[in-house]
Amino acid sequence: MGVLTFKEEMILAAIWKLGGSAHGVPIRDKVIEISRKNIVYGTLYNSLEYLIRKGYVESIKGEPTPERGGKSKTIYTITVSGKKALMETKEMHETIWQDMPDLKPGLK
Questions:
Q1: Cα(7)–Cα(102) distance, rounded to whole angstroms?
Q2: Closest CA to 48 of 26, 69, 33
Q3: Per DSSP, what are the bridge partners of residue 22?
Q4: What's the distance, Cα to Cα, between the start and end of the chain in Å?
Q5: Phi/psi at 21 (nearest 5 deg)?
Q6: Could you tell me which CATH class the domain 6-98 is placed in?
Q7: Model confidence over 24-65: pLDDT tens digits?
């Protein structure tokens, strides 16, 4: 398992925070909330497809809804491999920040 890129980490974290499965709009909203960075839908969906190819995310079609004109939503779910990759990335961050001298004095 490799360490995730920032974008991969944010998307997997967003899916996990949304209960382990969600569709595009809530995932995008959660990525923006936790990263404080905008992500356009094209980038999000390309990244989700890449995470699917890596085996970190699975997608299934939901039931068609009248609100969407009979179209179904694609639901994205984090896989066991995705959870492991997210955990390894979290552990790497914890190792990096362990025993880190305080950065605040240098910001003045």
A1: 26
A2: 26
A3: 76
A4: 39
A5: -155, 145
A6: mainly alpha
A7: 999 999 999 999 999 999 999 999 999 999 999 999 998 777
- Residues 85 and 56 sit within 8 Å (Cβ to Cβ): yes
Contacts of 65 (CB under 8 A, 6+ apart): 71, 72, 73
Q: Which of 46, 19, 21, 18 is nearest to 32 (CA)?
A: 18
Kindly list the domain boundaries of the chain, sorted by start residue: 6-98
Q: pLDDT-derived band of residue 4, with 50, 70 and 90 as boundaries?
A: very high
Over residues 61-105, the pLDDT tens digits come to 987 777 777 788 899 999 999 999 999 999 999 999 998 888 888
Q: Is 43 exposed, middle or buried (0-12, 13-18, 19+ CB in 10 A)?
A: middle
